[in-house]
Design a protein that fits this description.
Number of helices: 3
Distance between the termini: 72 Å
Mean pLDDT: 76
Low-confidence stretches: none
Radius of gyration: 24 Å
Strand content: 5-15%
Amino acid sequence: MARYRVIQNSFINGHFLTVDEEVDYAGIPGFNLEPLDDEARSAKEKAGQLAQRDVSSRAFQEDLTRPDGAPSQQEHLTSPDDVPPRHEDLPAAKADEPTADEKAGKKTASKR
């Protein structure tokens, strides 16, 4: 069975374990467990690969403590094309060009 060191106080198999305790665990290891043997390292790597999110990542750990519970946007991006452009990277609109709303036929406040 895989052996881990607890790196955050945790309930595992119905027991409260504190930091630095060691535990044998056959389940899917999370961020709170540090692998101590080859079996544990393999299980931890496999859990990260199978998950939609890498449970071993720092971003995942930080998201667990976010008050809104929402994941960070950056972790879900899969390629540079998925990154939304920064405002300063967008082309500046020319003063005489119609806005996107005007092009779509929507009424907008008059320009001053």
